[in-house]
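This follows on from our talk about sequence and fold. Please put the record directly below this note.
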Amino acid sequence: MWINIFFSVTFILGLLYLIRYRLNLKYSAEKAANALFPTSEEEMNQILIPSEFMEMQPLTKGTRSYKLVKWGTVGVICLFAVLMMVVFWTDMLHQSIFSIVYLFFFLISSIKHRGNFYIVAGGLILNGYYFAWDRVKGYELEKIIKWHELYGLDDKINHGYKLAVKVDNKWFQPQFVVVRDQVHLDRILSLLNIHGVKKVGENSETPVSSYTGVE
C-alpha cells in the first residue's frame, strides 16, 4: 500500500513540475521574440551558459531543445502513467520501485531547454523562466581573473564576467551566465539600471564601465 502512495505522490509532483516547466518555457519563448537583448547572433555569442560554457542558443518554438521539452514532456507523462497503472494493478514492479523513481527523476532532469538569458520589456528570461521586473531584486557581478573559481575551466570564460541575477520568491536562485566582453556587459547593465535593477548592496547607480575586479 505504501509503495502505491509513494509512487503516486512522486508521479503527481513530477507531473506538476513538467507541466509548469513546459508552460513557463512556452511563455518565455513568446516573450523572447521581442527581446531588448540579445537581438542578434553576435550578441548571443557573447553570452556563455554553464556548465559547458557554450554560446547561448535562441529560445524559440522551432529549436531542437524546445521541441525536446515539448514532446519529451508528453512522452514521460505517458510512460509513467502506464507504469503507475501497473504498480496499482499488479505486484510486478514493487521490487524495483526505487529504480523506477530514480529513472523518473533522471528523465525529468534531462527534459530541459539549454540555458538562456534575455532582457525583455517586462522583465528577464533566465533558463526558460520569465521573471517580471518586480521580482528581480538585483545582480551580482564578478570578473573572471586569476584565482577566481571559474578561471581556467574554459578559455572562453577567462577575463569575462560572471553575472548572477537575484529574484524574489524562488528557493533556488537561477544559475549565472558569463558575459564575454565589457562592451556587451555595459549594454546589459545599462538595461538593468534603466529598469531599476542594481548591483546587490547598492542604493545608487554605479557607472557600468567602472567594474574591473572580483566582488
Q: What stands out?
A: The radius of gyration is 20 Å. Confidence is low (pLDDT under 50) at residues 204-215. Strands lie at 47-49, 54-55, 117-120, 123-126, 129-132, 136-143, 161-167, 177-179.
